[in-house]
UniProtKB/TrEMBL annotation:
InterPro entries: Beta-glucanase-like, ConA-like_dom_sf, Glycosyl_Hydrlase_16. This is GH16 domain-containing protein. Residues 1-21 form the signal peptide. Residues 18-182 form the GH16 domain. GO terms for cellular component: fungal-type cell wall. It holds the Pfam family Glyco_hydro_16. One of its GO terms (biological process) is fungal-type cell wall organization. Keywords: Signal. One of its GO terms (molecular function) is glycosyltransferase activity.
Length: 182
């Protein structure tokens, strides 16, 4: 299943695919016929949000996002805010990289999610109260009844230092990298 890339919370600069905050779908192809999704029309795509938004490829799905010298900045003004951007295209296998700082604060979750319309999901998640940890996980068809595929990884400073987080997705495996280390 082709997947779109979605991102939420405090993003500094994004290099590659699209991200998303809340798990949902506009049309689940396992339940009905859905229109075809647009695919990424090139073999490599890079965006540097320190140079502004790429409105041709990214949309603001929720919240307040500004672009400046720190890249895309996601603002949380009140409880329940979930600023989110997402790509307008999908990809089937590939490598997605994001250079980012996670948002600080207990109760805040920053995430980078690759998700299909039938809710297959591959993600990174950072808890705002845990500056030195990131979780990776994957789910199929929206089934989140089992969290036994997740893993926790140590990060030096997820909130104060821009770190490169990469998902390498092939037909054989999904691999997560932190600053180039598997």
């Amino acid at each position: 299943m082709a997947m779109s890339f979605v991102r939420q919370a405090s993003l500094v600069a994004l290099l590659a695919s699209s991200t998303f905050a809340q798990t949902f779908t506009d049309c689940d192809p396992t339940k009905k016929t859905c229109p075809a999704n647009p695919g990424l029309d090139k073999s490599t795509y890079t965006v540097d949000f320190t140079k502004g938004a790429d409105t041709a490829a990214w949309t603001t799905a929720a919240g307040n996002i500004t672009y400046g010298s720190n890249g895309a900045e996601f603002t949380l003004n009140k409880k329940g805010d979930a600023p989110t951007i997402e790509t307008s295209w999908y990809f089937f296998f590939g490598r997605a990289e994001v250079l980012m700082k996670a948002a600080p604060g207990t109760g805040i979750v920053s995430s980078v999610v690759i998700e299909s319309d039938d809710l297959d999901e591959v993600d990174w998640e950072w808890l705002g109260g845990k500056n030195t940890e990131v979780q990776t996980n994957y789910f199929g068809k929206g089934n989140t009844t089992s969290y036994d595929r997740g893993a926790f990884h140590t990060v030096a400073d997820s909130q104060g230092t821009s770190t490169n987080y990469t998902i390498d997705w092939t037909k054989e495996a999904v691999k997560w990298y932190i600053d180039g280390a598997l």
